Amino acid sequence: MLRHLKPFVYHPTLNACWLLCAVFSGSTLAQTALPEPPGLSLATMLQSVLGLALVIAVLFLAAYFLRRLNGGRGFGSNGPMRVVGGLIIGSRERIVLVEIGDTWLVVGLVPGQIRTLHTLPKGELPSTGDGEKPFSQWLKQVAERRNEGR
Length: 150
Fold this sequence. Notes:
Helix content is 48%, strand content 21%. It has helices at residues 2-9, 12-33, 42-69, 135-148; strands at 81-88, 94-100, 103-110, 113-121.
């Protein structure tokens, strides 16, 4: 019996055919046997978006209730003291106008120091025309000045 199969087993052309058949059938089986990875379904995306919306809603709701507990005021404005305005002088220096009751304090702030520069009675701040200009008008003026110099 082995003598009859021996010429068949050692024949190079037949061995190559058997090898090609085994490779192609194995790759076909391997391709059909492996499941494709699942894609991102609509339900998964909807669940993610709704979860994110729920977290954001909880944050806003918590901030609302904290503000209501504080009496409707912001978190930095409790008590009789209020910052009316400020001016940045340098990279770390500022001048701040603080209102305490019926008095305004002009305070100088530098790293490690706070100094009272002036005390005055509470009043109204004069409005300046330059600070109320829209950005587009300011940009137009700057462009006109630049073009005049050329």
